Amino acid sequence: VGDAMKMIELDSTGWKSLSDFGSAVHGSLGAPPGYNTSSVDALLEAIYWDHAYADLNQSGNEPYKIIPPFTLRVINSTFAPQTVRDELLLMQRCLDESHHWFRQKWGRDVDIRLEVA
Amino acid sequence: MSRFVFWPTPPQMLESAVPLYAELAVARMRLALVKLALKYRPDQPRVPTGNRDGGRWMGAGGDYSRIAANDSRKPPSVIVTPMYGADLLDPKNINTPPSPTDLKQIQSTLDKLSRGSMDDLKQLAPKAYSNYPSRLTGAMLPPSVAGYTSFAVGSRGLSRRLIVDNATGATYYTNNHYASFYHVR
């Protein structure tokens, strides 16, 4: 229990901005109250950082309904505006950087992926 | 002695921090490369918040007219030149005076950074802060050549963070998940 990869599919049909992606992420993961969906860094915390540190600290109080490992898979992105596709690519790049930063710092990582289809 | 020393440079960590310095140097180099790849220029202006392309880089020379002309909601004659100033920390004026509890927890976070033990650092959950502007408010921090590190404030309320300039130690506080910032002096 808890170590099987969970696939979370997010349908980008109708998305107009990063906030739409953020709302879908927050709803799927069950992000804590007080989080906003409108900046890259805020989203990265909900997608990656909070989970990585909850795992590192072994606090046992993950504030999310979904815990790693999980994959966020965005579907129908070809129908989304170019600005949204650009934002998703930026999120992927920032997520890669976050993985790298955390591994470099703490020597471990959590399996969280973002796929755009 | 300064009121705080930003992570990961506390002198008491020197012995254990050698690998961290190497990691920080690598992280800085990677950041520089990423920004170079993105053709990042700190002085390049951004489209002001409230516009369709709010937060995006503007063209060379800060010419907003091309964007404004393509934005049906704004008459082409309206030229908006973003001025980089203190209000960029809180463009929507949503900050309220921090509560005594806020101040106490900010101080506690600064104290932990000064001590710099690994246990403290784990609790503070440091993370690289990329400083892209908030799409909600347009808030962002001044560009930093070495980037920023963000630290958790308090045991509850994950949206409260201290953000520290890796080069200068300039410190900022947010209690709304990066929608606005306070300058911590």
Task: Please describe what this structure looks like.
The complex is a heterodimer of chains A (117) and B (185). Chain A is an alpha/beta fold and 117 residues long. Chain A is 47% helix and 15% strand. Chain A contains 3 helices and 3 strands, in the order E-H-H-E-H-E. Chain A has a 3-stranded parallel beta sheet with strand order 1-2-3. By secondary structure, chain B is an alpha+beta fold. Helix content of chain B is 29%, strand content 11%. Chain B has 4 helices and 5 strands; from the N terminus they run ααααβββββ. Chain B has helices at 14-37, 65-70, 100-115, 118-124; strands at 127-129, 148-152, 161-165, 171-174, 182-184. The relative contact order of chain B is 0.17. Chains A and B meet through helix 2 and helix 3 of A and helix 1 and strand 1 of B.
Category from helices, strands and their pairing of chain A: alpha/beta
**How many E-type strands of chain A?**
3
Rg on CA atoms of chain A, Å:
14 Å
Largest sheet of chain B: 5 strands, antiparallel
Provide the helix percentage of chain A: 40-55%
Cα shape of chain A? globular
**What's the N-to-C terminus distance of chain A?**
28 Å
Unreliable residue stretches of chain B: 1-18, 36-41, 57-84
Sum this structure up briefly.
Chain A is an alpha/beta fold and 117 residues long. Chain A has helices at residues 18-29, 40-57, 82-106; strands at residues 6-11, 70-75, 112-116. Chain B has a 5-stranded antiparallel beta sheet, with no helix packed on it.
